[in-house]
Specification:
Elements: H1 10-40, H2 46-49, E1 61-65, E2 74-77, E3 83-86, H3 93-105, E4 110-115, H4 121-124, H5 127-133, E5 135-141, H6 151-162, E6 166-169, E7 175-178, E8 181-187, H7 197-203, H8 207-212, E9 216-221, E10 224-228, H9 234-247, E11 255-257, E12 260-262, E13 269-271, H10 283-289, E14 293-296, H11 308-314, E15 319-322, H12 323-326, E16 329-334, E17 337-342
Parallel strand pairs: 3-4, 4-5, 5-6, 10-13, 13-14, 14-15
Antiparallel strand pairs: 1-2, 1-16, 2-3, 7-8, 8-9, 9-10, 11-12, 16-17
Amino acid sequence: MSGKPKKKSKGRLGKGRIAAAIVAAVVCLIFAALAVTNAFVPVVYLSAYMVAAQPGERGVLTVTFLDVGYGDCTLCELPDGKILLIDGGDGSYPNNLAILRKLNSRGIDCIDYLVCSSPLGEYCGGLAEIVRYKQVKNVFMPAIENEHVTPAYAGAAQALRDCGAEVEISRYGAGACGEDYFFTFLSPSAPEDPAGHYSALDGSATEENIFNVSAILWLEYAGTSFAFASSAGGAALSSVVDDYKLTTAAGDAYAPVGKFSVELTSCDVVSVPGHGREECTSAKWYAALTPDVAVISVGENYSGYPSPQAVADIGSSARAMLTSHSGDIAVKVTERGYEVTSER
């Protein structure tokens, strides 16, 4: 029995088209929302921006050694509200995320002073991402003729020059000050010094010379002092002590460093250079500073760090703290003294 062919259901086809249109519209809305969001907040780091901001206290210096594995990043919230950031970790996504999360959790959109202490990747690798998402007013960076001395530094140096900040060379005597605080560089020496650290590196890019151009930075507030030693080699650490002894031969406890005065023999907190590697330690350095606390930034998966030699040089009188064990390590300084807390 023949009959007319059945017609397709217009209703069923219409519902399918409507569903497809809804899905397409939702997808378009999602992409549009992401595009709009990315204009203000980087989507790749979205979780770093989903934090409650708690700005630092005025009249208080808070120095936080961030747990960024085998790398260095130190956040200094100065007592006048300004921000000093030393280094930016190794540039890996988890560490970039951790740094941006910490900055956002402290309500930091502008960095007043950014220090690139070393051309080694675990110090400068994340700086390009930081200056991409945060305003920076002043940058201190090495004076190295061959910026390709490490792959990480080539990218970091370009980003630092292009970020719009005022750029100054990290060298002996440079620094800045505020009410009751100052920071200054104890090393390396000036680029124009023929016998200095920068000249040695420009002549020969050995591992030792790379270590020795690392910045040694002194920060002081209300009688509490910090020495940040980056990846300074043993020769650079020892030369700071030798130069200090020459300038204090008359018995004055303070040595002039540019326009600042530093009492090197009374240091409360030191960052252990080179994550505690054997090439970056000096018994003379720790004997001169006699620190109370020694902070070592090192990852859990790096066996052999800190080296036995570095531990021996630090000595038993200092409290050694590792970011791999303690997480972020914070030192809060007031006019009454300082206290140390850790994340774990």
